Amino acid sequence: MRTDSFRGKDYMTLRDWDKEQVETMLDVAFDLKRRFALREPHDHLLRAQTLFMIFYNQSLRTRNTFEAGMTQLGGHAHFLDPSKIYTPALEGKEIAYITERVSDVARVLSRTGDGIAIRCYGDPVDWEYGGAHEMMQEFARWSDIPIINMECDKYHPCQALADVMTVKEKFGTFKGTKFVMSWAYSPSVHKPRAVPQSVIIAASLMGCETVLAHPPEMELDPEIIAACEANAKMNRTTFSVTNDFESAFEGAHVVYPKAWAATSIFPPPVGENDPDKTLEIFNKYKNWKMTSELMETADQEAIYMHCLPADRGFEVNNDVMDRTDVKSGWRSAIFDEAENRLHAHKAIMTLLMGGK
Ligand code: CP
């Protein structure tokens, strides 16, 4: 277990951390989960500390688990609506008295608190792929306190940590665990790639047999695919990509179908900035939906996972999502997964911000 190298660091993507460091994060998360179950006070860990949270987008789970987590650790999470401060903007994208340069916001908040957490993707950066991640990197460049990525357009490392925590909890191991991340149909074409990209990074880093399934038009960032291939090689396991929805789940232990944008939605040079074409593409794949019949083809103890919110009736049928309380057979782990966001986030904050 590595206990060095956490304090003061940023949490931008799991690509910045090695397997042993992620194992430490999971150990801490499980310890905090045990204390939470026992109602054992642990409010000394971040006593009187402040986390500033800037949300450019909506959130149920992320906002509330960070906020509840800071309370339980003895600190306070401060919610900042970008439209009610001067919206943090990169140099060259500023509007007088509406925005404030990221470098200035980062330095001001660094003088008054202990961590800055940011969610930004999609409309605030006109869907320019990588634009939100660039803004987060600019925050990190100027901030003296840790920056936590609560989801950008490339990565959602908070979700990914909770997801591998859930896999560890359910199967006890990553080795030999077949983890299938798949695209699934949604009527909404505006879905970032952050979750699938971070989930396959996490699963392959921890040593799962990772499978990525998607229609040809929904490919992910080649840089992420290369990182997953390198992870699989390091772990002497497999990472594979398929365009076949149904066969992907055969024998799977983890079944994780969710929608993400087709490449055509992004402005050039990545895509064509074409929502109409993207909708046409999506409509070709309405049959990419998780059903109980398909769950039967997975391992008999398989779990269904989703970061939530899920598009019920489109990505997945209700009977799959709601099969949470069964003693044996495949089941839905979505609420355990959502709860683990709390424990994973507390582990991240304690490791990065604790020990002052
Ligand atoms: N999965 C996730 O990040 O949920 P929220 O959008 O509700 O935060």
- First CA to last CA: what distance? 22 Å
Largest sheet: spatial strand order: 9-8-7-10-11-12
- Strand segment tally: 12
Largest sheet: 6 strands, parallel
Which CATH first-tier class of the largest domain would you pick? Alpha Beta
Q: What is the CATH-assigned architecture of the largest domain?
A: 3-Layer(aba) Sandwich
Quaternary organisation? single chain
- Roughly how much helix do the residues carry, as a percent range? 25-40%
Find the structural class using helix and strand composition. alpha/beta
- CATH fold node name of the largest domain: Rossmann fold
CATH superfamily of the largest domain: Aspartate/ornithine carbamoyltransferase
Mean pLDDT: 97
How would you describe this structure to a colleague?
By secondary structure, this protein is an alpha/beta fold. The protein has two domains: 3-154 and 341-353, Aspartate/ornithine carbamoyltransferase (Rossmann fold, 3-Layer(aba) Sandwich); 159-339, Rossmann fold (3-Layer(aba) Sandwich), CATH 3.40.50.1370. Helix content is 38%, strand content 14%. The protein has twelve helices and twelve strands. A six-stranded parallel sheet has the order 9-8-7-10-11-12. Helix 6 (194-206) links the parallel strand 7 and strand 8 (209-213). The longest helix has 20 residues, at 334-353. Phosphoric acid mono(formamide)ester is lined by residues 59-62, 151, 159, 307-308. Phosphoric acid mono(formamide)ester binds next to helix 2.
Gist?
The chain has 356 residues and is an alpha/beta fold. It is 38% helix and 14% strand.
